[in-house]
Design a protein that fits this description.
three-stranded antiparallel sheet; 2 domains; globular; 47% helix
């Protein structure tokens, strides 16, 4: 079945200075935007990461420090990226674990108010692993009968990912061809991920919880009571900005809720105090 689009779908890939979400930076971003009417447009830019590209990383994707020396920084490109993505759904290969968290970090660093979370995310790798258990190169060969000639170039990887996604919906008749269904199917794990890096999640009661370490599965509220210093440690430690942002919002919500409860209690006491016998 061909892809069924309710709104545009941006298939994208990033090349970076490394694999650390909180520290490494984008050196190339490529996006192919599919429109519901079948048309497509592309966006492909080299990015100055404002930090060194290690030789071993440059050997993988072929992008050197010299190549990006005069390229725009991500902060300079951010308005174009945001305008291009707009309210589109997003798709990529291993994007839920890497590309989306990295893109989120870069956007948050710019200080631009853009809600990346209000959309569906389709991870083509997760669909592939659920169906066949392979790499992108093998997926391209398996589904499309082609060999990737320029692996680790963001634009070629993006084109390959798009072709694989389209081939997957045609091959598997029981696989949904709408983006909401594909996003749900390509999500791995029982917990409802709250942040892009998966450090926070929602439990069955829709309460925000830690999703790692010694407090995994515990709500933020419970940990605040049991070990209040854990929250401060999270904010100071090397966690993604998106994770810290959600954590701050939840703590502020809990504070406001507690303040509201205290005010209600005080008002009730005052009513009882001045109530006529």
């Amino acid at each position: 079945m061909p892809l069924h689009l309710v709104r545009p779908l941006c298939v994208f890939d990033l090349e970076t200075t490394g694999l650390q979400i909180t520290k490494d930076r984008i050196v190339q971003i490529a996006i192919i935007k599919l429109l519901p009417d079948g048309q497509s447009i592309s966006f492909n830019e080299l990015v100055n990461p404002e930090q060194n590209i290690p030789d071993e990383i440059a050997a993988i994707h072929g992008i050197t420090n010299e190549m990006v020396a005069n390229a725009p920084t991500f902060k300079e490109l951010a308005p174009q990226v945001i305008a291009f993505i707009a309210d589109s759904d997003l798709a990529g290969y291993n994007s839920n674990k890497f590309d989306i968290p990295v893109l989120s970090e870069e956007l948050l660093r710019t200080g631009i108010d853009f809600d990346l979370g209000a959309r569906h995310f389709v991870d083509v790798q997760n669909i592939f692993h659920k169906m066949e258990q392979r790499t992108l190169a093998a997926a391209y060969q398996f589904y499309c009968g082609k060999t990737i000639e320029n692996a680790h170039n963001a634009l070629y990887d993006t084109l390959a990912t798009l072709e694989v996604l389209q081939a997957q919906t045609e091959r598997y008749q029981d696989l949904s061809n709408d983006i909401a269904g594909l996003a749900k199917f390509s999500t791995i794990g029982d917990n409802q991920r709250a942040d892009f890096a998966g450090r926070l999640c929602y439990n069955e009661q829709n309460l925000l919880c830690y999703n790692f370490g010694k407090h995994k599965g515990k709500t933020i509220e419970r940990v605040l009571k049991e070990e209040p210093g854990y929250y401060g440690w999270m904010l100071e430690a090397d966690f993604p900005l998106n994770t810290k942002q959600l954590l701050r919002q939840e703590v502020e919500r809990l504070k406001d809720a507690a303040l509201g409860t205290n005010l209600e209690d005080k008002l009730e006491l005052l009513k009882n105090k001045f109530k006529k016998p």
